Amino acid sequence: xxxxxxxxxxxxxxxxxxxxxxxxxxxxxxxxxxxxxxxxxxxxxxxxxxxxxxxxxxxxxxxxxxxxxxxxxxxxxxxxxxxxxxxxxxxxxxxxxxxxxxxxxxxxxxxxxxxxxxxxxxxxxxxxxxxxxxxxxxxxxxxxxxxxxxxxxxxxxxxxxxxxxxxxxxxxxxxxxxxxxxxxxxxxxxxxxxxxxxxxxxxxxxxxxxxxxxxx
Length: 216
Prior knowledge:
Helix content: 25-40%
Distance between the termini: 51 Å
Largest sheet: 5 strands, antiparallel
Active site: 178
Family: Belongs to the polypeptide deformylase family.
Binding site for Fe cation: 135, 177, 181
Number of helices: 5
Number of strands: 11
Function: Removes the formyl group from the N-terminal Met of newly synthesized proteins. Requires at least a dipeptide for an efficient rate of reaction. N-terminal L-methionine is a prerequisite for activity but the enzyme has broad specificity at other positions.
Mean pLDDT: 93
Shape: globular
Organism: Streptomyces nogalater
């Protein structure tokens, strides 16, 4: 499909491939920069904050307020040097995440997903990858977690258009991780009790490199 111009892409009209999946690999630097320049970086909520431990509300309004939230999320993600960020990680109760993530082949993906739902994979496509995983809301902690090495997410873009996003390797992990956030799950919730305890110990022993919201 023909390349859309940058203004159209920033307005939420990403091209799609022959199978209907968004092409989120083109003009990544320009699109991310355009969002980030409009945004204000916000501190990151951390594990224990109630905002992270419940399902978020569906996005139903796709106007300027959502556009500003997305811009703030890209700005916050860049400050924290993350590859994905969910709205509740900056205290906003809406099902939206942004990403700026490379896959295992080094291809960069940049995009926005509202109201995401993970597509159930048939058993023959569920090859597990047990790489390390971290989270901006569990700063400085990492743990091995098995997830499928391929993921598909359906949802809407920042203008309300229906979209499908797919990824492999590290980007697949990102799509699963951020969708989890919006349903009230952190990656440490999927660990054994021992590994969860170890991750929280790592977090307690180190200082985050970006502003966080203290849990009272």
